[in-house]
Design goal:
Layout (H helix, E strand, L loop, with lengths): L3 H8 L4 H19 L8 H21 L1
Helix pairs in contact: 2-3
Length: about 60
């Protein structure tokens, strides 16, 4: 596992705030852009799509 100091050296900055704001925003927009999902169908119908997109976004953000 990479230590926090090593991550800062690789990125050049701490991306904690970008991750805290970016992951929910990206995961909310992703189904709308790529799968034609809308919140107008109801938030309960949109919630599973947002949850799956949230997990994929977190995995991608952490791994890259």
């Amino acid at each position: 596992m990479i230590k926090r100091k090593k991550i800062r050296e690789l990125l050049g900055f701490n991306d904690l705030w970008l991750a805290l704001i970016g992951v929910p925003v990206i995961s909310f927009i992703f189904p709308i852009l790529f799968f034609k999902a809308t919140v107008a169908q109801g938030f309960i119908a949109y919630l599973p799509k947002w949850g799956i997109s949230f997990l994929y976004t977190i995995m991608y953000w952490v791994s890259v």
